[in-house]
Amino acid sequence: MIRYSCDRCKRDILPCEELRFIVKLEIEAQLDITSEATLEDDHDHLTDLDQMLGRMEECEEFGESDFYQKRSFDLCPECYRQFAKNPLGKDIHVPLGFSKN
Fold first, then answer.
1. Domain count across the chain
2. Separation CA 3–CA 93 (nearest Å)
3. Which of 4, 63, 83, 96 is 20 to 30 A from 46, comparing alpha carbons?
């Protein structure tokens, strides 16, 4: 029998009794190298090339796995609901209920 556990809360998920949610995450680095200025005829393309190479050198600090990652997580129903409400894990600010004076 295959056993599943929630990757968030670590509890066992019983596939015959409850749903198991699979969250797939794909991370891909993007470097935008074009600009509107490059479309002009009188533009200095060598300067653009120099800037582009400089931006690419900045990316060398990252490892190969930083440019593309594909991951998959199993979540129980409760953890899925919490994830779906706030997938980026941002702090949720609850508005304060001030009385109207």
1. 1
2. 37
3. 63
